[in-house]
Amino acid sequence: MALKIVLASCLLAVAAAQYGYAPKPYAAPYGPKPYAAPKPYAPEPYDHPHYAFDYAVNDPHTYDIKSQHEERDGDYVKGSYELYEPDGTKRIVEYYDQGYGFEAVVHKEPAKGYAPAPAYAPAPAYAPKPYAAPYKKY
């Protein structure tokens, strides 16, 4: 009996192959994509960065007064910034990088003609009027 089943399945396989019922390989856009090896890493060409910028803020309402200047030429950076702190002092920071790492020099001096920011005082708390029962007229 087992021999009959093996022979029948062999005949069925031969007939299926003869009439084109065998699985077909996937066609191009739907099948699995062939493996593509990744491209070797190539660093981008080094361009020589060069820039200079300045900015300044002077807002007497919020006491935000500061400025900055910076220049860069390749790997060399130098600049400075200054700001007025709430205690009335002026902080000046000069920084530079000559290709060996960042270095900064900080100076602190009393500000000329600048008063410290006023201390914060919260608004008075709201006190509701005492409750009085509404007058009812009968």
Helix and strand layout, with pairings?
Layout: H1 2-18, E1 50-59, E2 64-73, E3 76-84, E4 89-97, E5 102-110
Antiparallel strand pairs: 1-2, 2-3, 3-4, 4-5
Descriptive account of the structure:
The protein has 138 residues and is mainly beta. It has one helix and five strands; from the N terminus they run H-E-E-E-E-E. Helices cover 12% and strands 34% of the residues. A hairpin with a 4-residue loop joins strand 1 and strand 2. The protein starts with a helix and ends in a 28-residue tail after the last strand.
Give keywords.
single chain; 138 residues; mainly beta; 5-stranded antiparallel β-sheet; 1 helix; flat
The span between the termini is 110 Å
The percent of residues in helical segments reads 10-25%
Q: Segments where pLDDT lies below 50 for 5+ residues?
A: none
Radius of gyration: 41 Å
Tally of DSSP β-strands: 5
Mean pLDDT: 79
Could you say which structural class the secondary elements and strand pairing correspond to? mainly beta
Reported for the largest beta sheet, the result is: 5 strands, antiparallel
What is the count of helical runs?
1
**Percentage of residues in DSSP E strands:** 25-35%
